[in-house]
């Protein structure tokens, strides 16, 4: 009956939209796919998917509905052509090298998790950690600190930590929603802030290209020279912009505050009370993005639970990933390019490194458990396959989300949102507006990197034309240029945190074995609070040059502390009232 109502809503909405074409005067627009690109209609598919996912909690059907609506718009509302085109978007998503790399990495990592679970290694780690993480606070603190050891890539950070920490947090009655929040809200914020990460090459290249393009267009030779000098020193500009990354920095700190103050609010408080009071680490009726409770993944009876059967493969993944980043980065360096860590990591191929790393994790784990005779060769292979199968649901969601990303690209949703920046506005409001547009773009498209790729070429030239940063470190309104650059990155991360169609949101749910919509519903209030504080005491005061951005961060921390003090409650205390 639930699915019948879902399809009834989809069909009804299509019929209404079909007959409303003449009423609202966009029939001619829909008939030509070129007429809807870069218009408000390009927002319809992602909004359909997001609203349906939140309301119905049927993520797969909701994502499919979003892609279908987009295909209908692109086909001039031809039902048959649009439906056929829907599947082409999924095929296109699977022909992208980076998408396939993420799928392979996820499958291999799932296979490794299945292997170490079946061998009892995961249970061994839980037994050891019980001596350190003796309560919920220490368990969550350990989960937060662990992000610092896998800072170099957000995907690796999310998948490794979620899978490794989940058994410990389950044993401490910490909800899967809380684990997914800790994992998600420390991965991308750390990756965007740290200097040595897989993000830095992309970010610096975007800044460099935008400034170089503006230099080529400048008619004044002096200004052109200044712009080119800025492009040549894009890394220094990036370093100067780090203190302006208000949302990522405050998001990292807010997670730590919640843990140390033992306070939650909103849907997260409900989830934590449920878990602590014995109602389960996941909501009754929830659909976890990964199945980790399969009988095929349970430890073999009568075999020892050795912690190093889990720890060594995980360390192998981290070591090989770092080596892969180094080796691929060195191979890309030009003969006259300095062999600095920043240049090496910036030129590295993170996807190749992660595939090598996850394959190494399976190999090391396989050899260890077979050599110790904990598992036979046949049972070890079966456990690897079972671990891969546990990732199937999340991979389906990823492919659907990427398909929706293809729809938004075809409709130029990002271009429409970026065009909102072209309107005349006071220069001091530019960083705040950029943060908002970047957040909406990332929320609608489900990609932080895509958002940066869309907005950097628009925002940086716009800021320069408006008079920000000419002369750069010694120029007028240099802080506004830095604030605009950082706002693209910060807004992209914020929108990514809030979007149920984001790949990092899906991966966090998958690694934590949490229901995707439950993860979004519990994380969203926290992300919104941090974003509002970052905007009010960070983006705007820094643009008006009322204070140094460091003081804005300090004030933001004080406000977030007050929010938790006033509105937050201890889940353990609240569970006693249930």
Count the beta strands.
0
State the separation between the terminal residues, measured CA to CA. 32 Å
Structural class: mainly alpha
What does the main sheet amount to? none
Low-confidence stretches: 20-32
Structural features, described:
The protein has helices at 2-24, 27-31, 33-36, 44-56, 59-74, 79-94, 97-118, 121-129, 136-145, 154-171, 176-193, 200-217, 221-232, 234-241, 246-261, 267-276, 308-331, 341-346, 350-371, 377-389, 392-410, 413-419, 430-445, 448-465, 478-498, 503-512, 516-543, 549-567, 571-575. It is mainly α and 578 residues long. The relative contact order is 0.15. Among the domains are: 2-94, no CATH class; 97-194 and 289-393, no CATH class. It starts with a helix and ends with a helix. Helix 11 runs parallel beside helix 27, helix 14 (234-241) packs across helix 25 and helix 27 (516-543) crosses helix 28 (549-567). The model is unreliable at 20-32 (pLDDT under 50). Helices cover 74% and strands 0% of the residues.
In short:
With 578 residues, the chain is mostly helical. The protein has helices spanning 2-24, 27-31, 33-36, 44-56, 59-74, 79-94, 97-118, 121-129, 136-145, 154-171, 176-193, 200-217, 221-232, 234-241, 246-261, 267-276, 308-331, 341-346, 350-371, 377-389, 392-410, 413-419, 430-445, 448-465, 478-498, 503-512, 516-543, 549-567, 571-575.
Which tags fit this structure?
74% helix, single chain
Draw up the topology in text:
Layout: H1 2-24, H2 27-31, H3 33-36, H4 44-56, H5 59-74, H6 79-94, H7 97-118, H8 121-129, H9 136-145, H10 154-171, H11 176-193, H12 200-217, H13 221-232, H14 234-241, H15 246-261, H16 267-276, H17 308-331, H18 341-346, H19 350-371, H20 377-389, H21 392-410, H22 413-419, H23 430-445, H24 448-465, H25 478-498, H26 503-512, H27 516-543, H28 549-567, H29 571-575
Helix pairs in contact: 4-5, 5-6, 5-21, 6-21, 7-10, 7-19, 7-20, 7-21, 8-10, 8-17, 9-10, 9-15, 10-11, 10-26, 11-15, 11-25, 11-26, 11-27, 12-13, 12-14, 12-24, 14-25, 15-27, 15-28, 16-27, 17-19, 19-20, 21-26, 22-23, 22-24, 23-24, 23-25, 23-27, 24-25, 25-27, 27-28
